Amino acid sequence: MKPTCEVDVLPEISIVKAPAHGSVNFESGQDYPGYSQRNIRYECNKQLAPSTQLFYQSGADFHGSDTFVVNVRFANSHVRTITYNVTVS
Predict the structure, then answer these.
(1) Three-state SS across the chain?
(2) pLDDT in tens, 39-71
(3) Taking the complete model, does pTM exceed 0.85, yes or no?
(4) Measured distance CA(13)–CA(21) in Å, rounded
(5) CA-CA distance, 27 to 29, in Å (whole number)?
């Protein structure tokens, strides 16, 4: 996101390790950013921005813990690997 709050390109997201007991889907959406007060983009937190939203769906009758891993590749080619731990009750 630019300091002007414009989004040129959303990051690419890929599944590195799928969940063992469910599935993961991605959809386009909007969300409020969460920049820290010291970030030049802090004022962008006040408005919705384009985003890619991640949804986990557990398998039928599954209760317990599940884990999956995604890579997020940003426009500057920086890649962040994120592990999600999900508890289904």
Answers:
(1) CCCCCCCCCCCEEEEEECCCCEEEEEEEEEECCCCCCCCCCHHHHHCCEEEEEEEEEECCCCCEEEEEEEEEECCCCCEEEEEEEEEEC
(2) 999 999 999 999 999 999 999 999 999 999 999
(3) no
(4) 20
(5) 6
Backbone phi, psi, residue 11, to 5°:
-65, 155
Buried b / exposed e over 56-84, threshold 16 CB at 10 Å, is eebeeeeeeebebebebeeeeeeeeeeee
Average pLDDT over residues 2-24: 92
Domain definitions of the chain by residue range:
12-88
